[in-house]
TrEMBL record:
NCBIfam families noted in UniProt: PRK00121.2-2, tRNA (guanosine(46)-N7)-methyltransferase TrmB
Protein name per Swiss-Prot or TrEMBL: tRNA (guanine-N(7)-)-methyltransferase
Entry's Gene Ontology cellular component terms: tRNA methyltransferase complex
S-adenosyl-L-methionine among keywords: yes
Amino acid sequence: MRLRKKWWARPMLEESPLVIINPKEKKGKWSEEFKNSNPIYLELGCGRGRFISTHGENNPNINYIAIDIKDEVLIYTLKNVQEKEIENVRIIPLEIAFIEDVFDKDEIGRIYINFCNPWPKKSHNKRRLTHTTFLERYKKFIKPDTEVWFKTDDKELFEASLEYFPQSGFEILFSTYDLHNSDFKENVMTEYEEKFTKLGMKTMCLIAKLK
């Protein structure tokens, strides 16, 4: 579904200190931004922000960064964070292809990727956020033993990702084709996940750790 353009969204994002409009300036300085040395976890494609705001609220000793390209959804992420008065979340409007320009070596301790675009055409596979092309980029700024938590409702993408991660030197720690009927207890549902689970969608999940 195409989002209607909200011309007022960008000015509102720019007014908030929680939104980092020029994230390249923070490269290597994210601990300074949060004013502490707590671990920094990253969500790629945060949507409307329930996932990241829930994590931020429940884990005050971890810093979170939420990235999405669309101002029209980031404005809801900001609203979620502000309403809960969460101080350990920052929001970045960014095309994820430029992720290497934003973070320095060993700055990130975990990555979440939730229901990203599956890019089903073979010629587009390299755009997948779990493709080896992107995994190699992440390795430039994640810490050793960093985990990537990935959820999708697309079986072909999931099975391809089970191959992508080992190819890039990650170990698969956990995987399931039916997350909500598994024994996994740490799941935080996204808005998308909740909506389509009610319609019978199965969520596939894997956790991979950099060796």
